[in-house]
Design goal:
By secondary structure, the protein is α/β, with parallel strands linked by helices. The protein is built from eight helices and 14 strands. The strands form two sheets. It has a seven-stranded mixed β-sheet. Strands 7-8-9-10-11-12-13 form a seven-stranded mixed β-sheet. The longest helix is centred in the last third of the chain and has 13 residues. The chain is globular. The mean pLDDT is 97. Bound molecules: zinc ion (2 copies).
Length: 283
């Protein structure tokens, strides 16, 4: 298996239009690896896409992806679903009778429930299903499936509306947790994976100086895992390698800052790095 990072930003991709900050300025001037589009990645092997942010069309066009066997959605949040129109690419627009392609979309049960009353997502996907370009499949709690000989199992997080995905191929294991690790205690079945992809969390403190960046009273600290909490979770995962993604513009770290931070973390004995758009990591 190989993981291709299509977009490594979070809800606030970099650069933000009109923003004059250093991080956005560099991103605008230099592009990748400084700029980051919305959260999405592709697992080569099973050829599975995880989540469709609004920039997914552009992300796929610049990627090495040539065929999508299936898509999994991790949760209902707008930064993970708003590129749903991408499935129209399957449609045969001019041939008659039409020979459209159909992509299987797997949706864990709780996510399917949320899709039904959030953002019109279910209505939109059902419309696409009627056009024959997707086939929707709800996954019951605890259900896993096999694609191209690779077992894929959705794992519900402590934030119960969000799922991570565990991929197993022979002796190799990959964990992809797109977002929302707050309060999560990694269960035994995901510990010791070969590669864990996890969100970076919000920077409550500057990772270099230790000074507070977010007020203790800020509501984001009650809804999101912090970077320190995420580092804790990374330790408990005992993964051979950890790659952090879902990197938010307001956390104020440029690509160069992250490379510097990576250096420090590696010195402390962790095999941890930060993803950037277009990065490919073998499992
Ligand atoms: Zn997100
Ligand atoms: Zn900015």
């Amino acid at each position: 298996m190989k993981v291709e990072f299509l977009g490594t930003g979070g809800a606030i991709p970099t650069p933000v239009p009109g923003c004059g900050c250093r991080v956005c300025g560099q991103a605008r001037e230099r592009g990748v690896p400084y700029s980051r589009l919305g959260p999405s990645l592709f697992v080569h092997g099973p050829d599975v896409l995880i989540d469709t942010p609004e920039e997914i069309r552009y992300q796929l066009n610049r990627s090495t992806v040539s065929r999508i066997r299936a898509c999994f959605y991790s949760h209902w949040h707008p930064d993970h679903v708003m590129g749903r129109r991408i499935w129209e690419m399957n449609k045969d627009w001019r041939g008659w009778p039409r020979r459209s392609r159909t992509t299987d979309i797997y949706i864990p049960s709780r996510v399917a429930r949320d899709f039904r009353d959030r953002l019109g997502t279910w209505e939109h996907l059902a419309y696409l299903q009627t056009s024959g370009v997707v086939r929707l499949a709800e996954l019951a709690e605890g259900e896993s499936l096999e694609l191209a000989g690779i077992q894929i199992r959705p794992i519900r997080l402590a934030e119960e509306y969000v799922y991570a995905f565990l991929f197993k191929e022979g002796g190799k294991r990959l964990l992809v947790a797109p977002d929302e690790l707050r309060g999560w205690e990694p269960p035994a079945e995901v510990q010791g994976v070969d590669l864990a992809v996890i969100p970076m969390g919000v920077l409550e403190f500057d990772p270099f100086s230790g000074t507070r960046r977010i007020s203790e009273d800020h509501s984001v600290l009650r809804s999101e895992a912090t970077f320190r909490q995420t580092m804790d979770i990374a330790g408990k995962l005992k993964a051979s390698r950890v790659v952090m993604t879902h990197i938010e513009e307001p956390d104020g770290l440029s690509y160069d800052d992250l490379v510097r931070l990576e250096g420090r973390l590696v010195e402390s004995g962790l095999n941890l790095s930060f993803a950037y758009d277009t990065l490919i990591v073998p499992v």
